[in-house]
Structures are given as structure tokens and as C-alpha cells.
Amino acid sequence: MPSSLSNLRALGAAIILLFAFAYPAAAQLSFRPTAEAVQEDQLLNALQRGDKITGRITIPDTRASSLIQPAGRDWRDFQRSRLPIIGGVAIIGMVALLAIFLMVRGRIRVDHGFSGAKILRFAGFERFIHWLTASCFIVLALSGLNISFGRILILPLFGPEVFATMSVYAKFAHNYLAFPFMLGLVIMFLIWIKDNIPGKLDLEWIKQGGGILSAGKHPPAKRFNAGQKGIFWIVIIGGALMSVSGWFLIFPYLAATVTVLQFWTVIHAVIAMLFIAAMLAHIYIGSIGMEGAFDAMGTGEVDLNWAKEHHSLWVEEEQAKAHGPSDSTPRAVPAE
Amino acid sequence: MARVKFLCDADRCIECNACVTACKNEHEVPWGINRRRVVTINDGKPGERSVSMACMHCTDAPCAAVCPVSCFYTTADGVVLHSKDLCIGCGYCFYACPFGAPQYPKVGNFGSRGKMDKCTYCAGGPEADSTPAEYAKYGANRLAEGKLPICAEMCSTKSLLAGDGAIIAQIYKERVMKRGYGSGMWGWTTAYSDSPTG
Hints:
Largest interface: A-B, 58 and 62 residues
Largest sheet of chain A: 2 strands, antiparallel
CATH architecture of one domain in chain A: Up-down Bundle
Number of helices of chain A: 11
Oligomer: heterodimer
Shape of chain B: globular
Strand order of the largest sheet of chain A: 1-2
Strand content of chain A: under 5%
């Protein structure tokens, strides 16, 4: 069978030819799937700070597509090393400052003594909103501090079971009271914004240190002096930042990635520490720090002499309103 | 005692997801939670690699460091476990974990987080070994029975290795030497670099 043998030979030659031509082409197109595979250390080195290695997954949970996010360790270091310093300096520092201030300056008295006459400073609704926000703030602050520092400060006192039970209720309180707190913020903003626009008087007030450093000196002020305006804006801006960041944390399934959540937890924690420190000063000056000040948010009516000393222009306005020819009501009306 | 670890040899992983399925089945993991998952890097491109990832049971575990109620503990084998009785579902371990291991069943009206669930290295939890209470919360305790984690034990290509960290690292290095390539010990730098001894 010579013909079939030659056919076979021809086929063999053709195959050899095919390989001879095809091989260089294949070599040009080829990649080496093993040697050129992705390398973990290359991916890690190429990562930007806070970035992560991600890929494709076949399960519905899209967050599972993140393979490695080394930023988690930075977040751990922030929680463990930096936050206690920020919180400690802000809060313990403020308590120390206030204690020193109380020792040096003492309680700020009404220079002319109580007159016995009262003037309405905050109406019932204003006081209600203030205390709604304030009581929520206190619970939010304590439960928040418990999350940050309870493990170090409180857990050793009560043991893990009691502390965990306490903390879970604190978490519920934190989550739910956030909503009345935010409502209070919005209403306070609306009812007090018009009296809190910074003006020229505030510069003078700040120049004189608010007159709180020495007795008998009282820079003129309208309804709110520069210090109170400062507190107002701290509450509004700080509260807004706490609300926005908290919104992300309370609804973790709102498409937020772990990187976004890490960012907002840091904002939430740092602003919280500064916020708490500022509120300690507010609580101090509104209670033990200044005689007659608490009445403004207590009964709502302050002593006329206190009002004249701290809010001279506001008293004049109120009295002009009360005794104005067109005004039929004889008593002072609250400035809304 | 050995310091146990996971090691995924990505050059052997064929993305069959059997480890994912076996884990879910072994522990009756809650709906919506995957203690282990397979992530494909550079999918569809030359040199793509799939990596099976779960909790890496880190040295100086970030989850344990940030937990506000200190519900984590590390066993003598180096397994990072947690107590669901103490967990308050705050999410801190999720923020800190480099591997996305902690997950939470959605509970409550706002879809807030329930008790955290993650890979236990098939080692259960703080309850007594192999009790129904332990199984209900954490799943099977294979380590107490002298077995390795199910995901690694049934891996068809022996890509996923579990066991003494020193031994599985040695096995991997021998493989790389023999075949001449390796895409790396995925997650090891991030999980164990905080301690030179691992």
C-alpha cells in the first residue's frame, strides 16, 4: 500500500509544517498564566492608604468582595491609641480647666445683688426643647463614652456579663435617643438662629473676655452674648456632624462600605469628645459657675439685675417692647 | 501547642466554592451570612487567581482589640473566638477586621445588627465543647473531636490548608519551590505581621 503510506507521510509533513509556523505565532500571543499570575505582595504594595484588595464573588453579599483591607489595622490603632488620648485630653483637660477657673475666679456673682424683679428669658417651649436636647445629649454622651472607654473603666468593676448587658441597653438608648436629639437640634436652630448671628458687639465682648474674668465688668450684649453664640454654633455644627456620621453608623446596610464606615466612626468619636468637653463648660457656667444663670432654663425667669449685667441691650429692648405705646400687654414677652 | 492558621494556595484554587458550601452546611450558618467566601482577583484576565478567605485568626486581632465589651478571646491554639452572649452587635469588629470576617444577622425594625457571627476555625465558642448550646450559637466543634476545619479538609485540590502555621507554611514553600511559582500566602502579612513569631 504505497499510496496510503505516502499519504501518511504527507500528513506528517503537513503537521510538522503547521507546528513550525504556528509555534512562533503562539509564542507571540502567549502569556505565562502561572508565572504572570497576580501576586499578593504586588497588590498590597500598590494599595493606596485606606484602600483594599477586591475581586469578584459569586454570593449576593457585595461587601464580601473585599478580600483584604489593611486599613482595619489602622482603625484598630486609632481606637486603641489615639482616641483615648483625644478623649482624655479633651474631657479631663476641660474638667481640670473648669476646676482651676472655679478656684481662681470663684462663682460669678450678680454684682448688684438680686433685685427681686424677674424678667422672662426663655418661654416654656424654648425650655422644653432645651431640656429635650440636653437630656438626650447626656444619655448619648454617657452611652457613647461607655462604648469608647467602658471596657477599660467600667468592665473591671462589674465583670463581663453585667457590663455587656448594661452596654447593650446603652446601645439601644444611644440608637433611639439619637432621633429626639436630632429633632431638638433642628428646632433649637430654627428658634434661636436669629439671635445668634455674629455681630460687632461680639468682637467687643470677646476683647473684654466676656467680663467673666473680673467682677464688675460687663460688656454690653443683646439676647445672646458671644460666648453663648459660640455654644449655639458648637451645638449646631457639632450636632450636625454627629447626626450625619451617626446616620451612617445606625443604618450600616445603607450601601456603605467599610472604608466609609471607618471614616464616619472616626469623625463621630473625635467630634463627640470635643462636643462633650464644650458641653461641660456650658453646664458649668449655667449651674455652679454663675449665680442666677440657671433660672434662665429653670423657671425661665431671670433676676432683672442679672439680666442687666449680662444682657444689657436685650433688657432695654424687652422693656421698650413692654412699655411701648402700641403694645397693649404690660409684661415682658419672650424673644422668640 | 501549635499556632493554627489558614493558608490558601491560590495557584491551586479552582473557585469551586465547595469550602463555602461545606462551611455553611457544617455549622448551619444563618441565612445571609457566609463565614467563608471565594474572591476572584483579576477575573477574566490572564493570571486571574481565586482566594478562599475567612477569618484569619490574626495575631493581635483587630476585632479583639476594638471590641467595646471585650467579647473575644484567643485559644491556646491561636484561634480567635467570641462570646455571642456578650456581643452587643455594635459593628466595631467589622470596621477593624482586615478580612471582612465579622457579619451580623439583620434584626429589629431598622435592620440593626444582631449578634456577630464569624468563622470559628471549627472550634465552637465559650460553651462546653460539642454541646447543643454551643452548636446553636457557633456551629460544630471539630477541633474538640480532633479534626481540622471542614473547609480545608474537603478542599479537592488541597488549595486551602489548615493546621499548624509552621507546617502549612512549609508545605506551601515546598510547593512553590517544586513548581516554580506562587502568588503568595494571601492575608498572612496583614494577619500575622504584628508579631515576628506569628
